[in-house]
């Protein structure tokens, strides 16, 4: 997230009571102008059916590619981490005898820092938007906020590279969050049938080149990402819906579901080939919790979300610190390297000072058991937690038999890892927070289970601390990200056992309620810190006092149906207003009265019109040279050129432009007296970008945009208003 | 469903190309009139928080009561069916030796018919709406169609009684579908804080007495019903969303989820007490498939949904036949009894003529093994399928070890049960189609599995036909009801094993695609046959040709801001139009021009105004005697008196009524040129009842209602228009 931050002026102290004017909105309402209607009317019933089939094909492709990427990340991380741990292990074994383990420590720290440096360099210098998990950005995208460069091919490449480096570099991060971002980028790319970065247009899927269609595919991509990350297709669909969609459409849901299925199947298929067991399909996701088989129906201990809230609060202060002081790319890279080195050091120290030796059993899942100072046939149990990728550590905590871990070891580990994870989230590396949260939760859950079994040692039902680890992991993750429905399904799908569903639900609900008392979810905290105009589900409940009249921006710059080119260019070039939508009013502009609304035209449409010089010569009335087509608009989408790049001569400035064909003739309007919740509902349900406020006579009196609505929120003393800032 | 049918004139040949004008709409858009706004503005932030807590409490109550009802049904059915089977079993055992099994047959048939008669009598004569599963009606309710009497207390009582009778009567039905309806009724009752039937008003929850809030609770109730029926809380939420909600709201979803959780927990808790194992919580739902433990990751045989479509087609013709010829309650009761007797006879014949004896093992789940003509220590395997409640039969098919069933037995059983189930669905009894579908599917799935194991007997992976039974059950149910996402989750939660998720998904998708090729889902077929103006998710794709001008009803009866009482009474009494919403226009009515829109008022509001005689005396201008409050409207909700019951004297007819305070001053409007898909989207997304069409000058030119939109649908030759009928 530090990416968005970087592009803001450094001197302005960051404040979440601001709302940035920097972010544009996406338009999830089709502009139904004449060109569009003509095209739709030309299309036969068969045509629409083909379109529908194409949508399914695209969703299949999205799922397939997302699954492939997940597979690639997984294999790369496993290989690299394997080499690293092998090297360090051999080194440690060598120096345990000789004395001089500090050399091993340095080797470990250097290896970690080197990996992290590579990843951090790429992210900080090439594509800052690729930092973090990308989930807040995707949430914003689906909400309707345009985050620049978030779904570009370059972002995807850097993201994948970055996540491989940071996980292999031993940071307290997971590779699951970035998969969601990756899936979304794949979706945005595939559905458009071209890559603007590579300057390659396949001339397919042109119909889908608009925000409305793109959003649907991006939802599918995000779902496919979740599905690949956790092997949870239903959870993926729910994630997309819980975080993104506002208008639920059954057909769309099925397509999203299909993409999720294909994604998990692809990952499964290729990983099974890689592991030499083709057709076994036993790795449904990037993380595999292993199967929980036994019955846990009576575990109803409800853990609190307090630790989750604590995580968010500390990270919140840390992020503010970062925004203020660490904004130069090289500083960011250095911080990332520092964290990597510290992680290695802390891990090493913990392993070194822990005397917790456990016998080396046959059924242990450890891949790199470290003997260190233990007797032969024993291994250091702290090392199983640290000397491993976090995914494996989580699995060990869930499944290792009772007695594997010493309570003190676990307690110290939890504290240390908590501190590391808080520090790590928000670094300029691509990484997710899911797995670290699970790991922290699993560790203290298991600790709690062990303590409980000391107290009530008679009852066999309290015996398996692995179950407490699972519940603890759910509570911690729920306390941090505050998703309930989708997270329940994801965890149930990942554990492969429905019986845990009920305790997980209870725990997540409790974690959410407790956590919300202190602070919002981590993603929401970060979104707020970026001053993104994010629209929540409902208007603040106490906002019935406000009406459209108070909320709207006014006065509005309007155009006439037939407008002078010079005026259009002047209005578009005016950087002080920088409006994106302009109501079109009927002819009378001579008197000062605002005209009657007859349409709405967007900046992007005007730019295309200017570029193609669709002018009506003054003499030859109303006959333009070449008929502009919908295709011309689609070709320019989504990177419309700025007005400065379009040259309009002095003669041309005197020409007129007829907007009738291109404007949306039926924009949604509301009267001035409409209450804010009503305006909000209309705006949110239909995914609007501009809502025209009219008076009794249908004259334009104002325009409501996303920022006008996002401004109001419920604070401690009731309704508060955020300030708009140019940052 | 035959309930809705009954109330229609019998002589009109039924036609699904009609759209009935009989059905009113619900209004899911708040009427934000002055009274409402004043109340909202008076409320503090604390007040809204209390309201939110109240919502959670109500959802908890809904879940609790729904769980209790499910528990009651389950225990009653088990007891009654137990007595019945025991009696018949003893009788059969007695007469197997003596000869004279026809007496047993008669006993069985009479017992069945008696049970069914009771249930059918109650349904046919007391509350016809309680017939069937109730799912189509709840779908309609959530869609915004007012189905009379569907959420009344009486309906609930009859429904519960009916379902106990019909399941105990041995019909090929399940008790799961009706649970969804029951949950919805509970929700509608609890959330209103009163029962109009019992004339008891608890004076609580008055804030929730309007369609918008009620719908939210009914969604929660339906979800709680699914959750109790299948032990599938997440599936319940998804069902509500897939079938009902159009505007997805995160907070609402969490409340629905909570209701589902409470419901399954309650059922679980009380059933575990009933079974003498308190605290074990091992019966999460009414149906319990037992746990599938082994791995099935390679079962990818995709079954087709053809059989499901066949079911729907036959049932479609049968329903038409019933609508035409069997519309008298006594005929309906007789048909139900006939079916019950035939079911007993067919079952008996099948058991009698099958020579499929199986050794009586220790691990069999049969509760009533029938020896009949088998050797000692053996039992008749056909009897396990017929001599049992369908839930148990399904479980046997899933879990009995390979070799339990003879392929011929299974084949004959499938055919016979298929015929019975098709005949049964649509009878005037309360019953669901889920379990019969599962049973048919399980039988032929197992049959398929057995045949496959004959062919590929070498591979051990094909060995367990129980898995094929599960897949077959999913395919059959999917082919009949055509839900994908929610059904996947329901089945996964019911089987308790996520590994089956992927094959189930594939099968459901395929079943849906194949089935849709032939005919719609069963519920949609029945909704269509009732000519309900049901709004689908999107407008037909080829409907861009149409604009609001063509679609709207015109001319519109408008009222003035201050209108003569006489005119209002006359308009409301006019049975030929029977409008429910009236645009209010500004004063000028002298000229023939339509006036400018300034509000919208509903028939129900006008009725309340007339009842309370809120008239402005001609002399004392604009001073009504008593200030009407929102409470007066809420007290009358939802059964507003008809206009005929309100007496207005000749003097009063000359008075005036000021509508300003009571009308919705900001109704949504669209210009005449708006395309149908755009109108549809606005209407559907916001759950509107009336949408005013205005011209350039904001003058009312038409009104779009649900019927105007539901009229258009995609037929074989493109867009078709349904005819409106007064039926």
Automatic annotation (TrEMBL), chains A, B:
Subcellular location as annotated: Membrane
Organism: Cyprinus carpio carpio
InterPro entries for this protein: CBS_dom, CBS_dom_sf, CIC-7, Cl-channel/antiporter, Cl-channel_core, ClC
Chief localisation class: membrane
Domain of life where this protein originates: Eukaryota
Keyword Nucleotide-binding: no
Assigned protein family: Belongs to the chloride channel (TC 2.A.49) family.
Domain CBS stretches: 663-721
Pfam families: CBS (PF00571), Voltage_CLC (PF00654)
Membrane topology category: Multi-pass membrane protein
Keyword Repeat: yes
TM annotation in the entry: 53-77, 105-126, 156-174, 217-241, 253-276, 296-318, 330-353, 408-427, 433-456, 468-492, 498-519
CDD domains, per database record: CBS_pair_voltage-gated_CLC_euk_bac, ClC_6_like
Database matches in Gene3D superfamilies: CBS-domain, Clc chloride channel
GO cellular component: lysosomal membrane
Name under which the protein is recorded: Chloride channel protein
Record-level Gene Ontology MF annotations: chloride channel activity; chloride:proton antiporter activity
Record's keyword terms, sorted: CBS domain, Chloride, Ion transport, Membrane, Repeat, Transmembrane, Transmembrane helix, Transport
